[in-house]
Amino acid sequence: MGSQWGADRYYQKSRREGYRSRAAYKILDIQNKFNIIRSDDNIVDLGAAPGSWSQALRDMTDGQVIAVDLNPIVPIENVITIKGDFTTEKVQSQILSHVDLVNVVVCDASPKLSGQKAYDQARAIGLCEQALHFACLILKPGGNFVIKSFQGEMFKELLDEARENFYAVKVYRSKATRRGSTEAYIVARNFKGFSNVSDRQL
């Protein structure tokens, strides 16, 4: 790990406090700012590996935390881990086999980067759209959604789609985001739900 990582205060703090990555401080910051998670919420954490968000979420709720990723996640106490693609009916059914309802969906996932800015931006937005669609399928009305994206081409379209489905939507740059990064979080609260139950069949 290079010197720029070693000098990062959030990286050093995560090692001291037992989090698997510095990213834990992003969801802690978002919770402190927006209070999106209540003490009894069931939460689905998409793109969860290595598990630092799930570690932080576990301390925010007495409800169930379910961590999902294409890669295996080292077990976390009192967190259900699922290896698979959250866009598939199989994984969605697995999630719903553990909880009757989902109050919050969070996603800190990023696609593997190629170094080609336009291509990487398109893939990142595509992943965000999939996560937003998943949230709209699985959240209870009034639920909350948080997703990482990158500001640039197509970001406005993603933001507009979130606003169509949630009553309150904000763009937030976490204090733990590295300087110079275009990373931003969409914090969407109070899911509007569906007028027709059949619209949200998985």
TrEMBL record:
Active site: K148
Keyword Ribosomal protein: no
Enzyme class, broadest EC rank: transferase
Keyword S-adenosyl-L-methionine in record: yes
Binding site for S-adenosyl-L-methionine: G51, W53, D69, D85, D108
Superkingdom of origin: Archaea
Keywords on record: Cytoplasm, Methyltransferase, rRNA processing, S-adenosyl-L-methionine, Transferase
Domain (Ribosomal RNA methyltransferase FtsJ): residue spans on this chain: 19-191
InterPro entries assigned: RNA_methyltr_RlmE, RNA_MeTrfase_FtsJ_dom, rRNA-MeTfrase_E, SAM-dependent_MTases_sf
Subcellular location: Cytoplasm
Catalytic activity: uridine(2552) in 23S rRNA + S-adenosyl-L-methionine = 2'-O-methyluridine(2552) in 23S rRNA + S-adenosyl-L-homocysteine + H(+)
EC number: 2.1.1.166
GO CC terms, sorted: cytoplasm
Pfam families linked to this entry: FtsJ
Gene Ontology MF: a single term: rRNA (uridine-2'-O-)-methyltransferase activity
Stated role: Specifically methylates the uridine in position 2552 of 23S rRNA at the 2'-O position of the ribose in the fully assembled 50S ribosomal subunit.
Family per record: Belongs to the class I-like SAM-binding methyltransferase superfamily. RNA methyltransferase RlmE family.
Name of protein: Ribosomal RNA large subunit methyltransferase E
Gene source species: Methanomicrobium antiquum
Encoding gene per record: rlmE
